[in-house]
Amino acid sequence: MNPQIEQIQPDIFAKLASEPYFATISLFQIRQERFQSEIDDALSSATFDPSQSGKLPGATIEVFMPVVRTNLCNAPGPVVTLEQRLVVKENPTINLAEGGVNLTAEEIAVQILQTLHQFYLGGVCQALYPAADAIVPNRAFPDLVAYDVILQATFNLTPPARTTCPLPPTEASLVVTFLPPASDPDAAIYYTADGSFPGPGNAAALAYGEPFAVASGTVVRWAAYAAEKLGSSAGMATIT
Rounded distance, CA 124 to CA 139, Å? Predict the structure, then answer.
């Protein structure tokens, strides 16, 4: 699979994990090997221990790998539509009781759409946008309330021609400095130097405090997070 497509799922997972709204909801990346019992535990108060994770029982979000769906007609070059699916599950008996998440599956689904709408995927992938049927009841779980949340993005299988990047300079390291956005001067800035998503939900992401040195050729990604707002789109640059 194209590495840029493979990166979509962990980026979306990290984006949701970085937002305070989802802090008490158990998130799962379905590509990872995991037992169904882990998801079942997160929906049950009998077997779930919030003190171990900071999460609450009664509601879950499952992030699936994106799927290539259709070729786009009348588009220059081989352009396809990607479908990104998430499943929100709620055990109302547990969720809406004292100690549960206390957000309905429908409320969570709507917030996912608001959070991921126009979320930029990077590279030749375009931003996500809601599908025509973006929130669909999922009847596969008779004891739960469940919804599929479906977003789409376009993807050009033939990347546009690029100018060859000059050789990196000979310096052993370069210094990176971030300035907070003028509209949110108190925003916290997170960055990564390993290509992963720059958000507080990612263990590899660091909170920026002062200029730092990186080796020439390092790919740095960054995003800003202000109180009571969604995080910004992620920036990305190769430091040369």
Answer: 35
- Asked if the model's pLDDT at residue 168 lies above 60, the reply is no
The secondary structure of 85-146, three-state, reads: EEEEEECHHHHCCCCCCCCCHHHHHHHHHHHHCCCCCCCCECCCEEEEEEEEECCCCCCCEE
3 state SS of 155: strand
The span from the CA of 79 to the CA of 59, in Å, is 36
- Look at the pTM and tell me if it is higher than 0.90: no
User: What DSSP assignment string belongs to 158-205?
Assistant: SPPP-PPPPPPPS-S-EEE-----TT-TT-EEEEESSSS--STTSTT-
Picking from 196, 190, 197, the residue whose alpha carbon sits closest to that of residue 223 is 190
H/E stretch holding 222 reads: strand 218-225
